[in-house]
Amino acid sequence: MTTPALPAPVVSLAYHSGFGHTAVLAEAVRAAATEAGATVHLIKVDEITEAQWEQLDASDAIVFGSPTYMGTASGAFHTFAEATAKRWATRAWQDKLAAGFTNSASKSGDKLHTLQFFTVLAAQHGMNWVSLNLLPGWNSSTASENDLNRLGFFLGAAAQSPNDQGAEGVHKADIATAEHLGRRITEQARIVLAGRAALAA
């Protein structure tokens, strides 16, 4: 007896990018998730349409992305987060997977607070957070700035880009770390879909 093929996980990236750096990370997550077998929607939260809200509602996983400005997500992302209250009230995103990524000009830049903001947003919606699941790189004398997770974040993918460079300044290791996140969220979504199918059988 053959097991019917499960549908591809649907992953949506809800992100804001002020100067293009975060958009580079979003594209890296998208490309890797697509390569891993997901159907992926890129959604700019400052231009979101009603059809895109419906795409978020129909997704298996939502990945939040924003630059870190003044120690938190951008104002545009906060506006989007507040607008999700209608979904919160109806539990529309309950039990979906969630993950996140961010960028700032400083090595730390308080990016952790932005990732924590994403986790609280996800928790309010009853979502299940998917961490980066990478050991920290670049933390010994023999390590390299080209290591995955070179900035040592665990909640999500974090990048550092010089404030005097455009999108071309996003570090290749940070792009690779975002790609890892795209693969991981797809793999976890596939596991959840398989589990639900097994329970329903």
TrEMBL record:
InterPro entries referenced in this protein's UniProt entry, alphabetically: Flavodoxin/NO_synth (IPR008254), Flavoprotein-like_sf (IPR029039), FMN_Rdtase-like_dom (IPR005025)
Annotated Flavodoxin-like domain residues: 11-156
Cellular-component GO terms for this entry: membrane
A GO molecular-function descriptor: FMN binding
Family annotation (Pfam families): FMN_red
Name the record gives this protein: FMN reductase
